[in-house]
Amino acid sequence: MTPITFQHRRFVARKAGEIAAEIADLSRWPEFDGYGPLPGITSAAYEEFGGAMTGARIRVQNDDGSSHLETVEVWQPPERIVMRLHGFTPSDSRLASHFIEEWRFDAADGGSEVTRQLQLYPRSPLARPALWFISLLMRCAIARHPEKIAGQ
User: Fold this and answer.
1) Which CATH number does the domain housing residue 43 bear?
2) Could you count the other beta carbons within 10 Å of the beta carbon of residue 77?
3) Quick check: 9 pLDDT over 60?
4) Which one, 58, 66, 67, 123, has the greatest CB density within 10 A?
5) What tens digit of pLDDT does each residue of 83-105 get?
6) Domain that includes residue 44, residue range
7) Contact status, residue 100 vs residue 84, Cβ threshold 8 Å
């Protein structure tokens, strides 16, 4: 099924390697505080981590009691990071099979241009409208998240 896709691009006054280190530091993940009814993250913990980020699995708990897994598919700072969000608890599991989140970094004077793209894969045509609404909330949450990464 065709995913619902959106991206956000923003300058962050940090180098790509520093941003990647923030992503790998799970103690920082609760800084993602959602938007409106979209829950924020309360905790994240490595379920599998063999020393290399590629293949790492992270269990994420949200402040509404839901959870999901994130698997690192590509870890190539300073170019890009790709993560697969899956294993959603109900009701999200009824709406989406998985999400793909890609971070792309372009060096810029004094920091990085960061492009964050999400692809949300609906379980069915009937789930698509609800997932589209969730994508709108995610766009708003992601638009303000780089401020926290940059410590602004």
Assistant:
1) 3.30.530
2) 18
3) yes
4) 58
5) 999 999 999 999 999 999 999 99
6) 4-108+127-146
7) yes
- Burial class, 151, CB count within 10 angstroms (exposed 0-12 / middle 13-18 / buried 19+): exposed
Separation CA 57–CA 83 (nearest Å): 9
Amino acid symbol at 105:
F
Residue 68 tokens, joined: 């999901």
Q: Determine the Cα–Cα distance for residues 98 and 111; give it in Å rounded to an integer.
A: 31
The secondary element (H helix, E strand) that includes residue 144 is helix 128-149
Enter the tokens of residue 114.
């960061």
Report the alpha-carbon distance of residue 70 to residue 57 in Å, rounded.
Answer: 6
Could you give the number of structural domains in the chain?
A: 1
> What order of strands is seen across the sheet that includes strand 41-48?
4-12, 111-122, 96-108, 80-86, 67-76, 57-62, 41-48
66 vs 73: CA distance, rounded Å: 23
Is it the case that residue 110 has pLDDT exceeding 70? yes
Cis peptide, bond prior to residue 78, ω within 30 of zero? yes
